[in-house]
Amino acid sequence: MRAGELLRWQRDGYPRYHRSRGNLLIHVAAVPFFLLGSVGLLASAILLSWRLGAASLVGMVASMAVQGRGHRLEAVPPEPFTGPANALARIVLEQWVTFPRFLLLGGWSRAYRAG
């Protein structure tokens, strides 16, 4: 699936997989840690800092682990990954595009009020 198709698929299905108030709260707290970790990982490569790289990876993994636990609160579980490339693409696009769009365009608040 190409990036554009994947983004459409995520956008269309996102409200179905993000209804639990607990999961919504987890996402709004955890996604920024993933984003900071991503930026830190890039900075670590530029600065050649293995410590920053390690700390950034830990933050990203912890963010994903917490979000994974949040998805257990949902009535509809997320679709399984179809392989490593699909997992990487879905994770990066969700964290950097789909969730921020969901939050900024009001989907998060609508889902929270409905939950």
Topology:
Blueprint: H1 3-17, H2 21-47, H3 50-71, H4 84-104, H5 107-114
Based on the structure, what is the oligomeric state of the protein chains? single chain
Number of helices: 5
Distance between the termini: 31 Å
Detail the poorly predicted runs. Answer: none
Task: Characterize the main sheet.
Answer: none
In short:
The protein has 115 residues and is an all-alpha fold.
Outline the structure in words.
There is one protein chain. Helix content is 81%, strand content 0%. The protein has five helices and no strands. The protein has helices at residues 3-17, 21-47, 50-71, 84-104, 107-114. It is globular, with a radius of gyration of 15 Å.
Keywords:
5 helices, mainly alpha, 115 residues
